[in-house]
Amino acid sequence: MSDTIRSAAAVTSSKFVIERTYRASVDELWELWTTKEGFESWWPPEGSRAEVHAIEACLNGKLQYDMIAETPEMVAVMKELGLPASHVERARFSEFRPLERLVLAIMMDFLPGVAPYEGTLTVDFFPSGEWVRMVVTLSPMHDEEFTKMASEGLASQFRNLDKLFQSRNQ
What is the SS3 assignment for 94? Predict the structure, then answer.
């Protein structure tokens, strides 16, 4: 691992936890979660992009964006899952403690044949000197297969974040 990033991940039957420690300020990491430019710069998994339409960084503020498959491989994956190449994702900041913790309550209403439900993504920030440890916990999805796929997607998203910090620190 580089001198700018440290990483860990764990999967349990009930949740997925991914941890990263970056040589960065907590403000830098917070902005990546709470601004349009920040979110779009790393959130979409490989082969996709996100277009943020609304991001209200406050308690119960909304986050709405299009997740768009761009590569032929990602379009094929979406088709195999019975999903369109582009879909709207909606969330709200159900907990919002600036520079410490945020919880996104994500409306899972785009899965064919699955009744809409709300999942959560919790992000905790632990600054220590020039480093910040970020612990992200993803709640389980409606079944193990989708929980595994969501975990793989989140791991891909964090590879994007790793690349972003590696390029900043070169």
Answer: strand
